[in-house]
């Protein structure tokens, strides 16, 4: 084969590939059953569900953890330090495997010990619990830092007014720490949306696994992984838009960041 | 006298750290470790010991290579965003946004399965010298991790370059340094000093990303533990040991970086 022939055959191959792909890609990605677009969108929906659930659970754990770290007794503080250190030092993939197997196993053992039937734990609940546990460690640190950034006088003044701890948390600490916490929490939300992809490894049906199945069946690997990347990117960009609004809202009445600097 | 004072200081600090409740917690932790050692199955360890060491070595090697290459790529990315004209800044910005906005797992699969399935269609690639490498999994893993590190660190370097006071650069130019020399002697070192604290975190994050390469059949320590789980039908033991290995590496990394950071003068800028 001469060089000219080689380049020629290469060119025809590229032509063939392009013409096949332009017609084929639209068909492959169409939302109706012969195409796989619908499956991808369902996967994206599941990913968003898990990310939302995990972030909410993480916020609950994080608020409790931050309070424990700041105001708890010495034992609580040490246990929380162990929790945040271990979770942040071990890869998410390993944690997800460990917690997924250990969690479902423990619940089933507890159920059988109490005389109930074993249950199949839904993938959604398990995914939210596992990612929420991981997110909790990171949000603990973010919220702890944010509470420390509140001018202490505000909390002292609230105590002097005789507010109960619950009222103090609801009226003063949470709203006052929000502007300091939002950049960190927004980052955590973006990490949560991306970490949902890791659940594909334990076989949970979300965007990454849906993409992998679609690509495996149709052999159009590049098309589908590219489409998934675009969907994740759109989710991130859309989140950034919303986060900007929320941050502006939480900082209402405060000088803008540019003026403060 | 000085050493005596130092010893007293150390004793005081340890006694402060070793409060009674901590001793109880440490005893409980020791009890858990001993229970794990005696009641769990570890008889597979001798058989997989060597494979595990090779896996750890490979994970560390991937970590080192991707961090160094990624950082080398992050410097121009940060510089382009900090000072470049629109035609340099915009592509760098888009690159960082795309890398940071999509999961690493998808990037990895896009490169390995996506590009990997396109390459064989072109004869000139199959005939080139790169083909023996392109048929293996690890170049895709290293490429994906490098690009990911560059994307995250590029954003950090942008801030670091922008944070170096203008006066420093003006002074360097006034001394008659060429642009390149001012960059090499003043701008880059000061930017790296500024980026160093975040570099620790980024390196630990990178370590925690390395097990993803196991999903494209690179045999790192995570893949070794998966193999042990498949062979022995054990669920927890290999995973717990794996978690311990990663925690140890993280601890060593954080300690090493804190030593490096301590050597750098903290009056910057």
From TrEMBL, chain B:
Residues 56-257 form the ABC transmembrane type-1 domain. It comes from the Bacteria. GO terms for biological process: amino acid transport. Keywords: Cell inner membrane, Cell membrane, Membrane, Transmembrane, Transmembrane helix, Transport. It is a multi-pass membrane protein. GO terms for molecular function: transmembrane transporter activity. One of its GO terms (cellular component) is ATP-binding cassette (ABC) transporter complex. It is found in: Cell inner membrane; Cell membrane. PROSITE patterns: ABC_TM1. Pfam families: BPD_transp_1 (PF00528). The chain crosses the membrane at residues 23-40, 60-80, 239-260. Its main location: membrane. Belongs to the binding-protein-dependent transport system permease family. HisMQ subfamily. PANTHER family: ARGININE ABC TRANSPORTER PERMEASE PROTEIN ARTM (PTHR30614:SF10), MEMBRANE COMPONENT OF AMINO ACID ABC TRANSPORTER (PTHR30614). This is ABC transporter permease.
């Amino acid at each position: 084969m001469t060089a000219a022939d080689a380049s020629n055959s290469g060119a025809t191959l590229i032509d063939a590939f392009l013409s096949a792909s332009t017609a084929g890609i639209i068909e492959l990605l169409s939302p109706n059953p012969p195409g796989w677009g619908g499956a991808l969108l369902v996967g994206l929906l599941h990913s968003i569900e898990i990310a939302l659930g995990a972030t909410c659970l993480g916020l609950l754990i994080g608020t409790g953890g931050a309070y424990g770290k700041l105001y708890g007794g010495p034992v609580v503080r040490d246990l929380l330090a162990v929790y945040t250190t271990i979770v942040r030092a071990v890869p998410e993939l390993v944690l997800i495997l460990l917690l997924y197997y250990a969690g479902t196993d423990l619940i089933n053992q507890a159920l059988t010990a109490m005389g109930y039937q074993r249950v199949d734990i839904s993938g959604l609940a398990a995914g939210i619990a596992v990612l929420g546990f991981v997110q909790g460690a990171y949000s603990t640190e973010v919220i702890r830092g944010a509470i420390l950034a509140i001018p202490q006088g505000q909390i002292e003044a609230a105590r002097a007014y005789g507010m109960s701890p619950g009222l103090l948390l609801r009226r003063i600490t949470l709203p006052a720490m929000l502007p300091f916490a939002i950049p960190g929490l927004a980052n955590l939300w973006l990490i949560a949306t991306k970490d949902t992809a890791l659940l594909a490894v334990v076989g949970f049906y979300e965007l990454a696994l849906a993409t992998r199945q679609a690509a495996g069946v149709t052999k159009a690997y590049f098309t589908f992984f590219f489409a998934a990347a675009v969907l994740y990117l759109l989710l991130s960009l859309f989140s950034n838009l919303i986060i900007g609004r929320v941050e502006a809202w939480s900082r209402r009445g405060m000088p803008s960041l540019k003026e403060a600097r | 006298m000085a050493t005596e004072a130092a010893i007293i200081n150390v004793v005081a600090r340890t006694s402060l750290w070793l409060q009674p409740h901590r001793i109880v917690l440490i005893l409980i932790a020791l009890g858990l470790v001993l229970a794990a050692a005696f009641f769990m199955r570890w008889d597979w360890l001798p058989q997989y010991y060597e494979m595990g060491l090779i896996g750890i070595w490979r994970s560390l090697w991937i970590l080192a290579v991707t961090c160094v290459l990624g950082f080398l790529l992050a410097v121009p990315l940060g510089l382009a965003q900090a000072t470049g004209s629109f035609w340099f800044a915009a592509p760098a910005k888009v690159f960082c946004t795309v890398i940071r906005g999509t999961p690493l797992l998808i990037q990895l699969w896009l490169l390995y399965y996506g590009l990997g399935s396109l390459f064989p269609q072109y004869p000139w690639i199959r005939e080139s010298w790169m083909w023996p490498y392109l048929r293996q999994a690890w170049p895709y893993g290293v490429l994906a991790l490098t690009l990911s590190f560059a994307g995250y660190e590029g954003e950090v370097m942008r801030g670091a370059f922008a944070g170096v006071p203008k006066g420093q650069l003006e002074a360097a130019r006034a001394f008659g340094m060429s642009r390149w020399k001012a960059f090499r002697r003043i701008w880059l070192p000061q930017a790296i000093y500024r980026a160093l604290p975040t570099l620790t975190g980024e390196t630990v994050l990178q370590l925690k990303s390395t097990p993803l390469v196991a999903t494209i059949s690179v045999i790192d320590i995570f893949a070794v533990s998966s193999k042990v789980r498949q062979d022995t039908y054990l669920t927890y033991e290999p995973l717990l040991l794996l978690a311990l290995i990663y925690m140890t590496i993280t601890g060593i990394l954080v300690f090493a970086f804190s030593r490096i950071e301590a050597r750098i003068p903290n009056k910057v800028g």
